[in-house]
Specification:
The structure is a homodimer of 106-residue chains.
Chain A: E1 5-13, H1 19-32, E2 38-43, H2 49-52, E3 57-63, H3 66-74, H4 76-88, E4 89-98, E5 100-103
Antiparallel strand pairs in A: 1-3, 1-4, 2-3
Helix pairs in contact in A: 1-4
Domain Stress-response A/B barrel (chains A, B): 5-97
Subunit structure (chains A, B): Homodimer.
Pfam families (chains A, B): Dabb (PF07876)
Chain lengths: 106, 106
C-alpha cells in the first residue's frame, strides 16, 4: 500500500447541481481509466459545520506512480469530465501527495 | 473495505512547529488506540498553491464503526493529543464520513 500517490478533491457543489450525475461521471471515469488504482468518495454529514467550511463532498483516488497520475490528468475522459465538473462546483480544494501508511487495515 | 468511517483532517501548522513531533504523536495515537483501523498521512507538495489554500498536511484515519470512532474521540490519549495539536495549527478542516468504495485496490 505504501508509495501510492493520492489525488484528494474536496468540493462544495453549486445549488441545483445533481450530485448523482457528478458521482456517475466520476464512477465512469474511475472505471474507464485503468491508471486509477482505487477510488472512494464520501459525503460529510458528521463533522462540525465550522470545521468543514461548507465543503460537503470528498473524492479520493490513488495511483501507483507519478506516470499513472500524469496519464490520468491528460486522459481525454478526464479532460472532458473536468470541464463539466468545474462548472458544477462553488469551491474546491485539491491535494496531491504520496501517502505514508503508518497503520494498515488488517 | 466498504462501510468504514473516515476521519480526515487537513491542516496548516503554525510557523516554528516541529512537524515531526506532531507526526510522532499521531503515530503513537494510532498505535495505542486499537479502534484506529488504519492511519495514513501525507504532505502536499504537488497541487497548485491556489487549490490548496495554504493547507499542507493531510491526516486520514479509518474506523470500522461509529462506536469505534466515538471511542477514539473520547479516549484519554486522543483528548490529550488534541489539546497539544490544537495549539500547533494555524488552520484546520475536518471531515467525518462513511467511505463509499467505488474501485478498490487490486
Amino acid at each position: 500500500m505504501g508509495g501510492d500517490l493520492k489525488h484528494l478533491v474536496i468540493v462544495k457543489f453549486k445549488e441545483g447541481v445533481v450530485v448523482d450525475d457528478m458521482k456517475k461521471g466520476l464512477e465512469k471515469l474511475a472505471s474507464e481509466i485503468e491508471a486509477v488504482k482505487s477510488f472512494e468518495w464520501g459525503e460529510d454529514m458528521k463533522s462540525e459545520e465550522m470545521l468543514r467550511q461548507g465543503f460537503t463532498h470528498i473524492i479520493s483516488m490513488t495511483f501507483s506512480s507519478a506516470e499513472d497520475f500524469t496519464g490520468f490528468l491528460g486522459h481525454p475522459s478526464h479532460v472532458e469530465f473536468s470541464a463539466a465538473f468545474s462548472t458544477a462546483i462553488e469551491k474546491i480544494l485539491v491535494f496531491d501527495f504520496p501517502t505514508v501508511v503508518v497503520k494498515a487495515s488488517a
